[in-house]
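Moderator note: this is an archived Q&A kept for reference. The question asked for a predicted structure of one protein chain; the sequence and the answer are reproduced below.
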Amino acid sequence: MNASMDPWAGGQSATAAPITGLATLAQIQVLVSAAGEEYRLRKIASDIFVRINHMLLQVYNRRVVFTEWNYELDPPREVQPGHLADRSLQAVEQSELVIAIVGRTVGEIARQEVLRHYQLKGLGLTPRTLWLFAHKPRPRRSSEYAPLASLGAEVQETFNEGIAYQEVGNDLEFQAGLMIRLVPYALSRAGLVTIPFQSFSQ
C-alpha cells in the first residue's frame, strides 16, 4: 500500500490539514487568599475560574483565561525559618486580582497577602484589585469576627484605606457573589463589554 494512502479514507490520498497558529493566551493572574478553614470556598472559586475560562474560550472564542496560583500544586521547596509566606507574597505581586476570604480567623499568611496588596496599590502598581468576602455562617455573633475588624483597622492605620467586604453565609452565597463580580470582570478584560476599571477596584 502506498504510504500516502489513508486506509480509513477509502484509498484517497491523505493530506494533512494546514496548521494555523493560535493566538497567545492573555492570562489574568489571580490569587485566592484564605485560611485553611475556608478551604471549601477556595475550591469553589477554583471551579468558577474553570467555568469562566470555558465560557471565554468555547462560547466567545476569546483567548483570555484566568490563571490561579495554587499552593497545592507548587513543587516542594526548602523554606527558611520566617519565610513561609514568601512564595504566596510573590504570587500577590504577580496577580492583578486577589480574592480574599475571611472566616472566624484571618490566618497569618492571608493577613500578609492582604497587606501586601495594599502596599503595592499604594506604590501605584496597577491594575490591582482585591475583593474581600467575610464568611459568616448563621447564626452570626459579631464577637467571633474580631479578626476581620482587626485586619480592617490595620489597613486603615497603615495605608489610610478602608476595607469593603461582602458577607456570605454559605457556599451558594459565596458562589453567587463571586460570579456576579467575576463574569463582568472577565467579559470586560476579553473586550466583550466596556466597564470602567474603577468599578472593580478596591
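Archived answer notes: The chain has five helices and five strands.
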